[in-house]
Amino acid sequence: MLGRLWIARFLIITLVLIRFRVNSQCEFSFSRRNKVFNFNLASSIPKFPHGALSEDGFYRVEANSTLLWFQLCDMLIFNHDPPRCVGCEDCGGPSHCGTSCSALVSENVQGYDVCTSLGHPSSTKVNIIDKEDPGKGVIVKMSGGNKSQNCSLSVSVICQKNKVDGPLILEKSGTCHYTTELRHPSGCAAAISGHGSGWGWFSTLLIIILCLFGAYLLGGALYRYFSLGIRGRDVIPNLDFWATVPHRTHSCFGSLLQRFGGSSRGQRTSYSQANF
């Protein structure tokens, strides 16, 4: 019984950690012109509880006898229509082709459908599409393949607020580098204004000064109370000086106002006499 409980706990913790890893891989923030643009492709949004992740477990796009399956920020799951190609050694093996990678492509080579792994969740990286227009969306890039052949897939998740389109196009460059695009509401950033966010240097300096002043008063009061045995209001250090601070401040402001006020009146008088 105890062993079963430990197994159940282990499974729950594993699922939580996997979910946290997926969410962290799908998050991206970008700062531009006093604004912070936050993207989270896996967060739940209206009509899309899984964000930009496919609810079927995979996206599928085909072009020129090339077939591509991919899942954003997670492993592929095939509950139907699994890949039927050779070469799945690093992506689930022949019997579970496509189940241990995040992107897989199949091409017809001399009459045989040959698979190539394009990416894994651990290699997924998210970046901005256009730094001048951060609200356009993000690029999800994943890489895979073996030591002799490094392959990749770049998926542009373009902001489209009302509906989902794609993936419709598939382009290839080099030996095994593919690009496609997906228009999805998850590609729209949550923009936060940078004005007023955080503390300015003056506010931070003022808080530090106030904290030091409070520590000085508290430390001095404790010392005078316990070490010197002083009681009452006299426990405050330098009480006579602090009692005269309001009067000194008032006198200082009065002197400044009188000085600048007298200078202004003198200038106006001289100006009037000159005109007269």
Automatic annotation (TrEMBL):
Domain spans labelled MRH: 24-190
Chain segments annotated as transmembrane: 199-223
Cited InterPro entries: Autophagy-rel_prot_27 (IPR018939), Man6P_isomerase_rcpt-bd_dom_sf (IPR009011), MRH_dom (IPR044865)
GO cellular component: endosome membrane; Golgi membrane; mitochondrial membrane; phagophore assembly site membrane
PROSITE patterns listed in its UniProt record: MRH
Recorded topology in the membrane: Single-pass type I membrane protein; Single-pass membrane protein
Protein family according to the UniProt entry: Belongs to the ATG27 family.
Protein name: Autophagy-related protein 27
Species: Cardamine amara subsp. amara
